[in-house]
Write a structure and sequence with these properties.
Layout lengths: L1 H8 L3 H21 L12 H12 L9 H4 L2 H16 L1 H11 L6 H10 L8 H31 L1 H16 L23 H15 L2 H10 L8 H25 L9 H13 L16 H13 L12 H15 L6 E2 L2 E2 L4 H26 L5 H12 L14 H16 L1 H6 L21
Helix pairs in contact: 2-3, 2-5, 2-7, 3-5, 3-18, 5-6, 5-9, 6-7, 8-9, 8-10, 9-10, 10-13, 11-12, 12-13, 12-14, 14-17, 15-16, 16-17, 16-18, 17-18
Enzyme class: hydrolase
EC number: 3.6.3.14
InterPro entries: Cat_transpt, TrkH
Amino acid sequence: MRKYIRKLKSLSYPQIIALGYFLIIIAGTFLLSLPIASRNNLFPGLINALFTATSATCVTGLVVFDTYTQWSLFGQVVILLLIQIGGLGFMTVVTMFSIFLKRKIGLKERGLLRESINAMYIGGIVRLTKRILLGTLLFEGIGAVLLSLRFIPKMGLLEGIYNGIFHSVSAFCNAGFDIMGKYGKYSSLTNFAGDAVVNLTIISLIIVGGIGFFVWDDIEKNKYHFRKYQLHTKIVLTMTAILIVSGTICFYIFERNNLLYGMTTGEKVLVSLFGAVTPRTAGFNTVDVASLTSASKLLTIVLMFIGGSPGSTAGGIKTTTLAVIMISLWSSLKNRKGDNIFGRRLEDNALKRSSAVVTVNILLILSAALLISATNKALGLDAVLFEVTSAIGTVGLSTGITGGLNTFAKIIIILLMYSGRVGSLSFALLFTEHGVTSSIQNPVEKINIG
């Protein structure tokens, strides 16, 4: 026993976080495997229960069963709790109980917290965690009230409130799980495509949950004074605005003669806005994803690959990673020294880390697509690429192939979702964290690039 305790104490922060998510997934798999979790009181299958627990904990939203028709109220509550824990980060939840029990939070726990929520500094981390918990309660509460007001007339009082809470938590945590199966399996929010209140509430929750906890704190401190924001916040807000606006315009153009045909101008704009926001990385849909044009599917894949921002409930390579690469590219093209933006210079290793994140994600996507295509020959390459990008980006959008995947493909998707939530680079580092770094460097020799 002491041997195992020593091993646990020697684990790095990323390894502890990865282990924490793994244990939560195992617990969720056990609970979803119970007869009481399914409407038919039958065992759903170990892989299917594991898939659902992983998707919920990793706030993805890919499902092998329709959530409403397959899972009982008990099963749905388990999924909702997994979403909330996965969205906030298990260390944030642990800290919440520590604060409630007035237990002192040690330095190691503070370091884990910093790593868990991707904060830049360990100082003030407990105060930031308290704000995260209060902010989450506030935003999810407002979202639940607004959604309930629209759902109650259609579903009744208790069911309307329950649906409001479920979808508010799912949207804020960028999970994409829905319980709208009563209106048709896998229908998501298609029955509310023209409802401005439902759409704008879900969109707002996705954006707020996806910009990151650090950004909240910075905005709360400096209010609307953009110049006072830290560089991280400026980049996140700018990139988020660019992606939303450009994504909405592109979606509108690509679908104006397809899924948007026959809608009013207001409905077209609303559906286009939703289509630009949900891939980063929520997983809800108000139109049939399988019926999108090829251009819209490619646009969605790109948005899923980018995802949200660091220290948030979202996945993907993150907006800051994309910004660093674009800034460095522009500096190289202009032959400028240093990568500068908003009157500041990026740290020297920012490009190296960003390139590593993008490269690891691309390699995982291509490897997974190759393996799934080889073992599921009936599936088109576009559908497979869409699925694996959605999994590693913890998005949850699908063209409808998830339930039909074989066991091998489901295991690959499970690993991608887990990697996406832990962080693809952190996942890769799990196996090299204890490597010894030599201070001796080899001689430099030039090579041709490009």
